[in-house]
Amino acid sequence: MKKVLFLIFLLATLGIGVLAQESPEPVSETIYGLITVDLADVRTGPDFAYPTIGQLPLNASVVVYGRSGDFFSRWDGRQWLQIDFGNRRAWIYARLLRTSIAFNSIPPLGRLLPRDANGRVPDVFDLATEICEQWPQGPYGQSAGDFFGGRQEITVTYPGLQGANVYSVIVISPTGVRRAFDSDTTEATILLEDLPREEGTYTWRVAPYWTNSPVRYRWQQVCLLRTGGTIEVPPYADRTNE
């Protein structure tokens, strides 16, 4: 276990955002679910801490839009499905229905809530609606120009989320190499010297986190990564300090 934690810490220290989950590509086929118990609770978000907003009867049919969590060997309270419920989208524990495709094949859309050392959801979060629905879709911005002509850093901006106290901007090279640039505000600085020796168009994405620890591997990701923009990076030989 200590070796695993050390590896996670080492990857985070090197700025490799391997643990951040990303928003999925859209799925073309409609996914259906069939309720397998009577009076299945429907909640505002993918977690038992969210309030119940209604119930569904046995054999009710629903449209499924996405999942939260992964299924490994058993249901453990972390697997949720986003469904149509009346005139809104809501969440239901995945064990309470059968789906037309395997759970892990459903695109990820949500995450469990952060917890403090006592297992409680921090009071800074508003659970009346699903947390990530409260995170604005924009605006995203970045300082003018790119890394050509001697520029050594670019500042990017992104919307804030109530309750999040740290953000991680993941910069992804054309071949998929990642670097993380963290900030406790809605502004982060991407340093050219910290990017890989690879030219081309890089994509930057951002995710909000909550933490009460300075140790990065204890950060709890609140929402999936969202794409903010792209940055052009010159060949390594052309990177100067003009």
Q: Layout of helices and strands, plus pairs?
A:
Elements: H1 2-13, E1 31-35, E2 40-43, E3 52-56, E4 61-68, E5 80-85, E6 88-93, E7 97-99, E8 108-110, E9 141-142, E10 153-157, E11 166-172, E12 178-183, E13 187-191, E14 200-210, E15 220-221, E16 226-233
Parallel strand pairs: 4-8
Antiparallel strand pairs: 1-4, 1-7, 2-3, 4-5, 5-6, 9-10, 10-13, 11-12, 11-14, 14-15, 14-16
Reading off the top of the CATH hierarchy, the class of the largest domain is best stated as Mainly Beta
Determine the CATH topology of the largest domain. Answer: Immunoglobulin-like
SS element count, helices: 1
Assign a percent range to the helix content: under 10%
Share of residues in strands: 35-45%
Q: How many β-strand stretches?
A: 16
Mean pLDDT score, rounded?
89
SSE string, helix = H, strand = E? HEEEEEEEEEEEEEEEE
Largest sheet: 6 strands, mixed
Question: What CATH architecture label of the largest domain applies?
Answer: Sandwich
Structural class: mainly beta
The CATH superfamily name of the largest domain is Immunoglobulins
Oligomerization category of the chains in this entry: single chain
Please state the overall shape, judged from the principal axes of the Cα atoms.
elongated
The number of domains: 2
Distance between the termini: 47 Å
